[in-house]
């Protein structure tokens, strides 16, 4: 929503080799690109981007078409609102628990610290 600039406050700027997860990007990779530019590896997630397959966007930016949730589900159907009407979940959207995502990406043993958000 544009609030991600807090990540660049002097006392919050991530250090090189940081790992960033960004959820619900809605085709907007500006946050991911900015984090990658300061040396972070970024994984962007959004299950509603139905026309976008998992891919490597750049040297340090990756995209996964899954969402985050409190359970693992391949057929999540969101409540219908304006946003969802534009991206109908005909077969459902895949969503995963954070621990499942960490396992999927091999990051389970990576030290994690949350310092900023793009929500």
TrEMBL record:
Superkingdom in the source lineage: Eukaryota
Segments forming domain Methyltransferase: 5-111
Alphabetized InterPro entries for the sequence: Methyltranfer_dom, METTL24
Organism: Pomacea canaliculata (Golden apple snail)
Pfam families per record: Methyltransf_22
Protein name from the UniProt record: Methyltransferase domain-containing protein
